[in-house]
Design goal:
The structure holds three protein chains of three kinds. Chain B is an alpha+beta fold. Chain B contains ten helices and 21 strands. Classes of the chains: A mainly beta, B alpha+beta, C alpha/beta. Chains A and C meet through strand 1, helix 1 and strand 5 of A and helix 2, strand 8, helix 5 and strand 9 of C.
């Protein structure tokens, strides 16, 4: 869906998206990384279960909610990628280990 | 204009009174200063409980519960009512003793709706509850409803039954001429033989127009709601000595409240959240449901409610005038009583009596001696 | 770490916030700035201090010049907190902020709210489908990550940003499949009357013309006056369709364009949730079709200790916002006794003049790009609330049942109760009610803002 127009080879981090390892440019948001990795949707809504992708990219729409490092419902456009980060799609309501 | 009765206030009680009156053939006019369910009626926690009621309220609450179980028959809408049960947990042995003696007293009075359950029975019902909870009272058949939807259901039903509603009509004056009440609002003057004050947190202001002084405190009762979470709790959960009302709706969101107060801005008719007080509430919720630690709160608000010194309502004929009645001051737990107050007032208006014991709710307990 | 109190607390490090901070700090005011991004600049100068040369070439010199302000801001002596999420603000000017997942309360003698703009929701059929984003989102990806769409791309909507993005994509070598202009037929002609007023800001006009020419020269199909725009697809965007429009002089009807990405835009509106939470007075601007925060010439709101500047109070653009920020910074310095009245007058004179020049383009732009009512008030089947998935039809049904305001509709339908707290549906809900009941927007009002302004965990709330 999206591609980068720059050569980031020198400055990348390794993250795991939906269980698959990816190298993505450092200093980009998780939402940007999810688009770069070609995810068809970053979450399924808790209301009807339909898929969504990031929409506003500036923190207001809450459509990019993802599970980041195990924490549910994180606004992926507001979190920067970091080495060894795990990123998963948010499927419905937030779920915690305790549940 | 003229009508059979004038109801002031379109909260749950005003709408219920209008409904029961209209169904008995007395078609009222309802004046509302804002819109139906604007304050406590529309934004409360929606608890429908007999559990933990003041002993004076128990007979009314039991009668109201019977209406809730058949709420669709009354208003042609289920009001989002779910009979999920209510639970009041004891966080210590001392609190457990308090609960046990409460249930014993109820049993002595012939009431059996509240039952004691042990720690393990509690854990069986709600595995997510903290281990420190010693036991609880459970009340089967209690539950919760959607407050705004409920008010609108009563509002719509009473309109169908012949009540007429006028919004944005704060009452300016009330006059008595012979057997007739004359109420003036921004746009209207209405005459009727009967007057019912259901003005909620403003109930004392209306009472004052009838020369009755009631020490009613307007408060802003705070609530907060979480993001959607997986289902983990069916009944509504309350605490014994701490303030808590905790419920998970079928859509997964969790509502936390119980009666902690924010700020009231009576001039603008707004309630505001006091974040420090709210934090007390979240700590209680977290203590009793440790898994809530990481759940996100997405909205907090405060609804304006009138609280009386003894924290039970005024449901009473006027002490100064005939053909006037008061229904206000529910002090944060009037929602469940909504259906029954309408029946009571309808009985009082039509038959000058009611089968339910309402002596303890008389306005005379507040009214100063010289006004009697 | 962050202190308990400051003389001046500024929320937002875009042009207005940065300029206010620079100005006030230069007069000795103890300033702190909270911003939710990783580096200063706001949306307009997002990431400008880290952008690569190639990115700067694409984004152009209006973007690159933000670097000057950002550099000055970094050296201004104020305390700057990045990735800070303001989750609480009340009428007592108490600010709750999350930094590194921990909550702090900060108070200040004076508050500047410079929260900028957000894109105006464009609720067309299918706007919730994966593959549909805002043009602003496309530009943020370009600025912050050097990313551009791949595959078939359609840009649609109205307003200066969509044209700018089209131009920037062309500079980046991105070919797109169509530019769909939803500006109502005749709006351009009607706004010509305002052109004379706009002459002091002729540079804005020339830039716009240059961009339009570039799109034409690239041979991109451009459709004007497009009506009945919608996104089509099962699980993701498959095509963009519209009922009617014009390609040059040729009328086009029932057009369907295959697309992988659709970027929508119909102008920007003030992100005024913070001013609303602080109890600042707002009013409806019929020309801009959005709520604005009422301020005086210094940016002071109905609360004399709260200044609301930049696009967060009224859409005025980056340059005017920075100047308004400076004026607020000066006035606050005066109010705090750092400069006297004479100095305030001497300092502000030239800034006011320049501010007015930059504002002169607005009546033309506002008139030219007033969004079509058809795209503000959607038909029944269109989703209005993306969070709770509430359609326009459900809102109209609630109104028929007796709801007369947006907060009643919210209580009734859950519209606006999701995590975005109405940022994507509030104005649409009010406009629907206004149309249905024939009531002016000032009477209809808007969805109330409730704390927290951004979700906060129960644990974090327990620790305040």
């Amino acid at each position: 869906m999206f591609k980068t127009i720059e050569d980031h080879a020198a400055d990348t981090v390794g993250i795991t998206v939906e269980g698959v390892p990816h190298r993505v440019p450092a200093n980009i948001s998780v939402a940007a990384a999810a688009l770069l990795c070609g995810l068809g949707s970053v979450r399924e809504t808790p209301v009807t279960g339909v898929g969504r992708l990031p929409y506003c990219m500036m923190g207001v729409c809450f459509d990019c909610l993802m599970k980041i490092n195990g924490q549910p419902n994180q606004r992926a456009c507001q979190v920067m990628v970091a080495a060894d980060m795990t990123v998963e799609r948010q499927l419905g309501a937030a779920e915690f280990e305790e549940f | 204009m003229r009508s059979d009765a004038i109801v002031i206030g379109a909260g749950i009680h005003g709408c219920s009174v209008a409904l029961h009156l209209a169904r008995s053939g007395i078609e009222p006019v309802v004046f509302e200063r804002s819109h139906p369910g604007r304050h406590a009626s529309g934004v409360n926690a929606g608890g429908v409980r007999r559990l933990g009621r003041h002993f004076s309220e128990v007979p009314l609450s039991i009668a109201a519960m019977k209406q809730w179980w058949n709420i669709r028959d009354l208003v042609d809408d289920d009001c989002g009512f779910e009979s999920s049960g209510q639970v009041k947990v004891a966080e210590s042995e001392e609190e457990f003793d308090l609960l046990k003696s409460r249930v014993k007293k109820l049993e002595m009075d012939g009431y059996e709706h509240e039952e004691i359950i042990t720690r393990s029975e509690l854990k069986d019902r709600i595995p997510a509850i903290s281990d420190h909870c010693r036991g609880a009272i459970v009340c089967q058949g209690d539950g919760h409803a959607k407050p705004f939807r409920t008010v609108y259901a009563f509002y719509a039903a009473s309109k169908r039954a012949g009540a007429r509603f006028f919004r944005d009509q704060a009452v300016d004056s009330i006059k008595r001429a012979g057997q007739t009440w004359k109420v003036t609002t921004r746009d209207f003057t209405c005459e009727a033989p009967v007057l019912i004050n259901c003005a909620g947190a403003w109930g004392n202001q209306i009472a004052a127009l009838l020369d009755e002084q009631v020490p009613l405190e307007p408060t802003a009762l705070m609530l907060m709601i979480s993001e959607r979470l997986p289902h983990f709790c069916t009944p509504v959960v309350g605490a014994t000595q701490r303030t808590l009302s905790f419920k998970q709706f079928s859509n997964g969101t969790v509502l936390i409240g119980g009666g902690l107060q924010g700020y009231v801005d009576m001039s603008r008719q707004q309630g505001h959240v006091d974040i420090d007080e709210l934090a007390i509430n979240t700590r209680t919720a977290r203590d009793i449901f440790p898994l809530m630690e990481k759940a996100r709160i997405i909205r907090c608000w405060a609804g304006i409610e009138g609280v009386t010194p003894d924290q039970i309502p005024v449901i009473s004929p006027s002490s100064t005038y005939s053909d006037a009645y008061h229904v206000f001051g529910f002090s944060g737990h009037g929602f469940q009583l909504g259906p029954i107050t309408g029946s009571i007032i309808s009985d009082l208006v039509n038959h000058q009596s009611t089968e339910l014991p309402i002596e303890d709710f008389s306005i005379e307990r507040f009214v100063l001696a010289e006004h009697r | 770490m962050i202190d308990d109190s400051y003389e001046l607390l500024i929320i937002g490090a875009g042009p207005a916030g940065m300029a206010a901070a620079c100005e006030a700090a230069s007069h000795g005011v103890r300033v702190a700035v909270l911003d939710n991004q990783t580096s200063p600049g706001g949306q307009i100068y997002r990431n400008v201090d880290r952008a690569t040369d190639s990115r700067n070439r694409i984004l152009g010199k209006d973007y690159v010049k933000g670097r000057l302000l950002v550099d000055r801001f970094k050296q201004c002596g104020g305390s700057y907190f990045s990735e800070a999420t303001v989750w609480f603000l009340d009428e007592k000017r108490r600010v709750g902020v999350l930094i590194d997942d921990k909550s702090y309360f900060v108070s200040a003698d004076k508050l500047v709210l410079a929260t900028g703009a957000q894109e105006r929701p464009m609720p067309i059929k299918g706007w919730q489908l994966p593959g549909v984003m805002t043009a602003g989102a496309g530009q943020i990806l370009l600025k912050s990550a050097g990313m551009v769409p791949e595959g078939r791309l359609v840009l649609a909507g109205t307003g200066p940003l969509i044209l700018l993005l089209a131009y920037q994509y062309l500079q980046a070598g991105v070919k797109f499949d169509a530019l769909i202009d939803t500006t109502p037929q005749g709006a351009m002609l009607r706004s010509l009357g305002k052109l004379f007023e706009a002459l002091p800001a002729v540079d804005y006009l020339l830039k716009g013309l240059k961009m339009m020419l570039a799109v034409r020269q690239a041979g991109i199909p451009v459709y004007h006056g497009v009506e009945g725009l919608g996104a089509v697809g099962e699980e993701k965007l498959e095509a963009v369709r519209f009922d009617a429009g014009k390609a040059g002089l040729k009328k086009v009807t029932d057009c369907e364009l295959q697309a992988d990405t659709l970027l929508l835009h119909q102008g920007v509106i003030p992100n005024f949730r913070l001013p609303l939470a602080a109890g600042c007075e707002i009013e409806w601007d019929a020309q801009q079709q959005n709520w604005i925060v009422v301020t005086d010439e210094w940016g002071r709101s109905s609360d004399a200790d709260i200044y609301v500047v930049g696009d967060g109070s009224r859409i005025s653009g980056a340059e005017a916002s920075a100047l308004q920020g400076r004026l607020a910074g000066m006035h606050i310095s005066f109010q705090l006794g750092k400069i006297n009245a004479g100095k305030l007058e001497a300092l502000s004179g030239p800034v006011v003049k320049s501010y007015k020049r930059h504002l002169s383009i607005r009546p033309f732009l506002d008139s030219c790009y007033t969004p079509s009512p058809r795209y503000l008030v959607p038909d029944d089947a269109t989703l209005v609330c993306r969070c709770e998935e509430i359609s326009a039809g459900e809102i109209r049904q609630a109104v028929r049942l007796g709801c007369t305001g947006p907060n009643q509709v919210k209580s009734f339908t859950r519209c606006g109760m999701g995590p975005c707290q109405g940022s994507q549906c509030s104005s649409t809900v009010s406009l629907i009610i206004s149309e249905q009941l024939g009531k002016p927007m000032t009477e209809v009002g808007c969805i109330r803002v409730r704390p927290p302004l951004s979700p906060i965990t129960l644990g974090q709330l327990s620790e305040v």
